[in-house]
Write a structure and sequence with these properties.
By secondary structure, this protein is of the alpha/beta class. It has a single domain, classed as Rossmann fold (3-Layer(aba) Sandwich), CATH 3.40.50.1240. The chain is about 30% helix and about 20% strand. It has seven helices and six strands, in the order βααβαβαααβαββ. The protein starts with 5 loop residues before the first strand and ends in a 7-residue tail after the last strand. This is Alpha-ribazole phosphatase. GO terms for molecular function: fructose-2,6-bisphosphate 2-phosphatase activity. One of its GO terms (biological process) is regulation of pentose-phosphate shunt. Pfam families: His_Phos_1.
């Protein structure tokens, strides 16, 4: 039997920004993180510092780059625009209460894949760029994988994590998953019969059970 190829993906959501705190839609608008909130990353940082990452990837937007800089992970990192959040177009900076009476907004909430954001990004465009990133990453892993396994950290946004998890975990819908800022999801993928499938999912940092 051939060697199984495994990939560990640590999908981490950036630290919180002012617009996040105010529950404003934040896509391509380039807001920095709230410096006062960075210490909330300390538990996650401690866990990730114990992992040897083959490579680290981050969205080019400030909130991801600033979060990654604070984490100070000792691994080579690459900036990739494909890891950006969806572009919310006319809805950037607006809240649910400001949009709730807009029929176009309600249609999008009911079916985000069929209804586009005004002057924003369609679901097809959003998914295509993330698919492009992950396909390139997994293809390169097949070529370079050592000892049957590689481990990657991906610093990105809530919508990107939702989509990636729903892509690999068939029982999870896009809206099922909610990842707090400064937290993430650990997926283990295994290559079986030419396809990558998820055989493990957990949250990071590790959630201790209450006594």
């Amino acid at each position: 039997m051939g060697t199984s190829h495994y990939v560990d993906l640590f999908l981490v959501r950036h630290c919180i920004t002012d617009w996040n705190k105010e529950k404003r839609y934040l896509g391509h608008t380039d807001r920095g993180v709230l410096i006062s909130e960075l210490t909330q990353l300390n538990k996650l940082q401690k866990e990730l510092m114990e992992i040897s990452f083959d490579q680290v990837f981050t969205s080019d937007l400030r909130r991801c780059r600033e979060t990654l800089a604070y984490m100070n992970i000792p691994s080579q990192h690459s900036v990739d625009t494909r890891l950006r959040e969806i572009n919310f177009g006319d809805w950037e900076g607006k809240t649910y209460n400001e949009l709730k009476d807009d029929r176009t907004y309600q249609d999008w909430l009911n079916n985000w894949e069929e209804h586009s954001i005004p002057n924003g990004e369609s679901a097809d465009t959003f998914k295509a760029r993330i698919d492009s990133f992950i396909q390139d990453l997994l293809h390169q892993s097949i070529q370079s994988i050592q000892n049957g396994k590689e481990t990657f950290l991906i610093m990105t946004h809530g919508g990107v994590i939702r989509y990636l998890v729903s892509s690999f975990v068939s029982s999870t819908d896009f809206w099922d998953l909610s990842v707090p800022h400064g937290h993430g999801i650990h997926l283990t993928l295994v290559r079986q019969k030419g396809e990558w499938v998820c055989n493990s999912l957990s949250v990071v940092p590790f959630q201790e059970k209450e006594k």
